[in-house]
Specification:
The protein is α/β, with parallel strands linked by helices. The chain has helices at about 5-10, 35-50, 75-85, 100-105, 130-140, 160-165, 175-185, 205-215, 225-235, 250-260, 305-315, 340-350, 360-365, 385-390, 395-400; strands spanning about 15-20, 25-30, 30, 55-60, 90, 110-115, 145-150, 170, 195-200, 220, 265, 270-275, 290, 300-305, 320-325, 355, 375-380.
Amino acid sequence: MKTIDQLIAEGVAGKRVFVRSDLNVPLDGERITDDGRIRAAVPTIAKLAESGARVVVASHLGRPKGAPEPKYSLAPVARRLGELLGGGVSFAEDTVGESAKATVGSMADGEVTLLENLRFNPGETSKDDAERGAFADELQGLADAYVGDGFGAVHRKHASVYDLPARLPCCAGYLIADEVDVLRRLTEDVSRPYVVVLGGAKVSDKLGVIEHLMQKADRILIGGGMAFTFLKAQGYPIGSSMLQEDQLDTVRGYLDRAQQLGVEFVLPVDVVAGTHFPATAETPTHPQEVGASVIPDDLMGLDIGPESRKLYAAKLADAATVFWNGPMGVFEHPAYAEGTRAVAQGLLDSPAFTVVGGGDSAAAVRLLGFDENAFGHISTGGGASLEYLEGKTLPGLAALEQ
């Protein structure tokens, strides 16, 4: 892939450079609750602006159905991006309409404009090549060059990700270049021992990555809601804990396959349980520590327990490479956050090259007060990172490599 530094060396002053970022941040009304993805987008945008480009930034936010929905507007993101860049960011109130054309047309060198949510236009996500291409043609009219920098979207065959770079001189931004470099370190010439930590709610979300990483990892540590399908597959009672019954046979197959390959599969030995899944604003009452093999019928596991935390820390201590995707419990609540905290601390205490992947894991790192810079890499990739690790071809990367 051509790099942004190569593009800048060729000269970008006075040119309109379209930057496809991933600014899909969580919102509470108009309040951004986690600005990590915006901060990750800043280096590429700032470098282009400093080099005299007229920077046209575009992103999606949420999943609108191809028409404007005020709750998915990028207006709050424009304000925060302006704060982080240390200067104002113009905001176009549409994607390719009169506002976009006027705002981009009036830009001076070094200025930045953010377009409204790309997914307000049905052509962005259309499965029809002609409709998607027509939208890409309209976006092309706003730019002289293209920089792909939204790694969290490169697994989507969308107009701004896949079709537009074929129509313009294109390159990869700093964020995509960094993500690809890190993911290659997790899949090629890996330093060992290589430990993978997987959490989150559903084992079905991680099936492909488990299958692929079993060929590469030395140890796989399992936590979060998905752990209970593994425990149930081993015949243990899991109370009212989360269970994907349709995945039990698949999970048993993974456990057998791991044994054949000599991959150590580590499951919780105890859990912190409650009577129900706590609502967002609710303070959990009377969390109980119970053995992972004897969870009572009236309790559900909501975090890994203290013995599991010690075990997981020990399994991380000698690692040379660690990839962590998914929290160990309901980390938003202090009563069920200690498992996730222990894993994060285990990564910091390890001498390993550490990669935190997935939006929930990255959000947990910030919510629990850890220094992001202390980790080897905080990924913004989410599902795209997992698909890369599964060995899939990602349309947005393929487009940049043409």
